[in-house]
Amino acid sequence: MPCNIGIADRVVRVVIGLALTVLPLLTGFAAGSSWLWWAALVVGLVMLATAGMRFCPLYTVLGIRTCRP
């Protein structure tokens, strides 16, 4: 898999991914709606995974590349 996520994009993904992962686990975020709790958790984990791999499948489909060649 070629790298298609740059440094700035990676940092943003980690920050948002951590927030979306920690928010449901440590707070009462979406306490009345379990689907919102799960959605935040899954999206956060996906963002952390794509930042870790430095590859985003959606970027490949859309032809976006934020890292230097």
Automatic annotation (TrEMBL):
Pfam families: YgaP-like_TM (PF11127). The keyword Transmembrane helix applies. Residues 1-68 form the Inner membrane protein YgaP-like transmembrane domain. Keywords: Membrane, Transmembrane, Transmembrane helix. The chain crosses the membrane at residues 12-31, 37-62. It comes from the Bacteria. InterPro entries: YgaP-like_TM (IPR021309). This is Lysylphosphatidylglycerol synthetase-like protein (DUF2156 family).
